[in-house]
Amino acid sequence: MAPRKRPETQKTPEVPKCPKSKRSRSPQELEQEAKKLFLKGPGSSRRHDSGCLWAGLANLQVLPPCSSLVRALHQHKLGKAAWPMLQQSLQQSFLHSLASYRIFQKAAPFDRRATSLAWHPTHPSTVAVGSKGGDVLLWNFNTKDKPTFIKGIGAGGSITGLKFNPLNTNQFFTSSMEGTTRLQDFKGNTLRVFTSSGTCNFWFCSLDVSAGSRVVVTGDNAGQVVLLNMDGKELWNLRLHKKKVTHVALNPCCDWLLATASVDQTVKIWDLRQVRGKSSFLSSLPHRHPVNAACFSPDGARLLTTDQNSEIRVYSASQWDCPLGVIPHPHRHFQHLTPIKATWHPRYNLIFVGRYPDPNFKSCTPHELRTIDVFDGSSGNMMCQLYDPEYSGIISLNEFNPMGDTLASVMGYHILIWSQEEAGIQKRETVTKVCAKQGLGATNGNKACEKRQLSVKGLKVYKS
Fold it and tell me: Rounded to two decimals, what is the model's pTM?
């Protein structure tokens, strides 16, 4: 009798063991390790980062990437390549460019941790950041001009939501633990108060704005969701969740579609035209843990959710009842840490999220780095990881500018700007030239550029 052949098993990638603790290793050693993790290429990285569960993955036909982007464009023009194949080639090219991404600008203007982040919709180098003390920073990191700093009330004024006014980008909306949702300008003036709790027991935790339907939606810590028009008129105020509403998001392609996330372990989908009470939702998406965020993809066809423990989920608009995929990922909740939220890239089907290593997590390795993890939104595979040994803290928030070429991250008190290394050098040289023209000289210009590590003393300060 012939001996039975042992079934072939897929080899799992070996994880290099680090003999030294992270604290005892030099920055050079950490950088070498980071380079190994930096970019492994699509499909070659930890596909099963922690047992990634992806519905229909066996039946998913992955199109072969084109060896040349120019060739892919030419084939698409001739009608020989489908749009998905061209999109995949563009995404592959972008993923390769991530290998050269480095932190080229940084700031630490707050005396408390940063809690919210928003890019200017038309200026790709301007970002607004809110803090736990209620401060707001408007920063154009490509100019020598001092950033605008609006002083908050301090303790109890945490900015929980921040959005530019799509009808006037010199203004912005905020929701805060102060108990208000308001419209402000960057001189510190309050133009309109949309909601006010009038008590320290209730505050607003989330905010979104729609330019198309001209509405503002906000949620509070008691499960209430309020819908208002741009003039401040309240359209409805209903309790849609049992507990705190951590996130509200309007669909970018369908203004009447709203997603709300809550610590009651649910995400709910609503039709704004038919909301009558907590039972009038279109779909309820149960989770195993409280949920930090629910974000629609740029095309509005998918929903990305981040819980407070170890799951990132992707839902499809064609079937809300069951998640398209579940990505196990360590990002547990901690009281003194800005909640970690996964976000979409504005142009590609990619997910970005900060990693908070957890020794109890299934795939945790010794001395695991606190990286920014990049996942493919279609397959759930981890594509690459971003890491800078000089800024090795937990990165809670990540968001690309509308052009999709510059990444802003929040790490505790720090604001980090990532860009391609060559592009970053060019931007620094431009600022140096401007400084030289102002009579600062080459040496002083370089020093001025190095002083991008900001302090509150060097800012234009306005009191709100």
Answer: 0.79
